Design the sequence.
């Protein structure tokens, strides 16, 4: 039953994410926002919501149950929070490279990923220092008030980044959805229906995340696997599918900047908002595996940022190289579980 519970939860989360993305793109078009704002902010945040909902629900549930800042819910929260940027910086980049390689015969640029380097450097340049600060706060013993200050700084920084992205504008939106998924007929959906789909999908995602957290706790107890490890690997691996799927489609259609920006924009979001929740509502003390995943994410981001600065060609082989760091982590995680 635990596996079925996890499957149902993930289907609910991912299905709601599809509905949310459809509606939020229509919202962006009606607000006359540019591609940068919709791609790096609205779409990135929308596809990041599934994995964000899991730690949010875990931490809120623990607070309501009076479990305080620790316990299995805290482990699940920390694991899910750090697992998302780790997978984005490693496995998602591998998927980008693999898609470019797979579609090289129909792409104008073959297996090379051509991106707006200014946008890419801005996103990754934001991710590296702020995620490094967040990880360091979980490795070094800090008083609670310092963690609160760091959380506030991260939230403010993300707000500034969003404002800068919106002001930068960019090209007008193209290829937005023709219709709202849940609106019948061919006529444009009214605003109330669009916003209803936005908030309704958020509610379904929250419920799916609630089921998932319960399933992870049950699986951890029955299999004897740390809850933090399950949340660190399983939750982001499944819930990051929206970013990966969108990026594959965009790469097929030679929209490399959108494909790459959807991932880097999510990295920016994941390194600030969910981390702030972790700093405020968990002990934020990283064990070996969570700290190791953060280090690997920073290593991958540093390599990508260096390549962008040097204007090195982002070939499929270069992009797929990031996947080796994910493989290293999985090998270390398996070794630790077997030998514990």
Sequence:
């Amino acid at each position: 039953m635990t596996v079925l519970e996890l499957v149902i939860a993930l289907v609910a989360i991912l299905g709601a994410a599809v509905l949310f993305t459809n509606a939020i793109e229509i919202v962006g078009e009606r607000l006359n926002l540019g591609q940068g704002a919709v791609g790096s902010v609205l779409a990135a945040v929308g596809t990041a919501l599934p994995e964000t909902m899991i730690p949010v629900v875990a931490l809120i549930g623990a607070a309501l149950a009076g479990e305080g800042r620790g316990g299995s819910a805290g482990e699940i929260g920390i694991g899910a929070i750090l697992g998302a940027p780790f997978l984005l910086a490693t496995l998602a980049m591998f998927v980008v490279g693999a898609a470019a390689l797979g579609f090289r015969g129909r792409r104008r640029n073959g297996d090379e990923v051509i991106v707006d380097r200014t946008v890419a450097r801005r996103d990754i340049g934001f991710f590296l220092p702020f995620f490094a600060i967040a990880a360091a706060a979980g490795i070094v013993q800090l008083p609670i008030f310092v963690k609160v200050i760091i959380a506030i700084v991260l939230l403010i920084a993300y707000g500034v980044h969003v404002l800068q992205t919106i002001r930068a504008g960019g090209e007008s939106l193209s290829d937005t959805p023709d219709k709202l998924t849940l609106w019948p007929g061919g006529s444009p959906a009214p605003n109330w229906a669009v916003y209803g789909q936005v908030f309704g999908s958020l509610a379904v995602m929250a419920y799916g995340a609630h089921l998932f957290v319960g399933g992870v706790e049950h699986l951890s107890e029955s299999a004897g696997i740390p809850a933090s490890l399950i949340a660190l690997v399983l939750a982001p691996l499944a819930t990051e599918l929206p970013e990966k799927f969108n990026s594959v489609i965009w790469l097929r259609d030679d929209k490399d900047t959108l494909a790459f920006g959807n991932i880097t924009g999510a990295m920016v979001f994941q390194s600030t908002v969910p981390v702030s929740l972790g700093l405020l509502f968990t002990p934020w003390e990283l064990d070996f595996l969570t700290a190791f995943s953060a280090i690997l994410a920073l290593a991958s981001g540093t390599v990508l940022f260096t390549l962008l600065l040097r204007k090195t060609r982002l070939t499929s082989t270069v992009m797929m190289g990031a996947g080796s760091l994910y493989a290293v982590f999985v090998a270390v995680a398996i070794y630790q579980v077997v030998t514990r």
About this structure: The two ends are 27 Å apart (CA to CA). The chain has one domain: 2-169+190-339.
